[in-house]
Design brief:
Layout: E1 4-10, H1 14-23, E2 27-33, H2 59-69, H3 72-78
Parallel strand pairs: 1-2
The chain binds flavin-adenine dinucleotide (FAD).
Flavin-adenine dinucleotide binds at residues 10-16, 33-36, 47-48, 50, 53, 55-56.
Length: 95
Amino acid sequence: MRKSRRAIVIGGSLSGLLAARGLSDAYDQVLIFDRDQVPESIGPRRGVPQGRHVHGLLARGAAALDDLFGDVADRLLAAGALGPRRCRTPTSPRQ
Ligand SMILES: Cc1cc2nc3c(=O)[nH]c(=O)nc-3n(C[C@H](O)[C@H](O)[C@H](O)COP(=O)(O)OP(=O)(O)OC[C@H]3O[C@@H](n4cnc5c(N)ncnc54)[C@H](O)[C@@H]3O)c2cc1C
């Protein structure tokens, strides 16, 4: 399939980055515009105030991210995320 030229994504958080990954298969270039500066290190920023809160990633979501980007789950764990054995939800299977 011949690639088109350029796609533009507004917003570079979770949805924007996933959209950009999907678009990258069909476009030569994908530009992401965000009103925030990309931070040097992991941490909260003005455009994503909910980033201060704890977030859970369900198994199917982790698998989808791994399909798109490779070893995302491993990298999240290496960066300090809690694995499923330490972070249970009401729907977690009993162990
Ligand atoms: C307390 C809390 C707990 C949550 N827990 C979970 C959870 O456990 N699991 C889960 O899956 N979800 C959880 N969520 C929901 C999750 O945070 C959101 O669904 C998710 O962050 C939405 O991602 P997004 O990329 O669509 O938007 P956002 O993460 O809000 O990002 C929007 C981006 O667009 C940029 N932007 C905004 N306006 C402009 C503009 N005019 N021009 C350019 N850029 C702009 C912002 O800077 C930002 O980067 C939680 C939310 C809250 C508040």
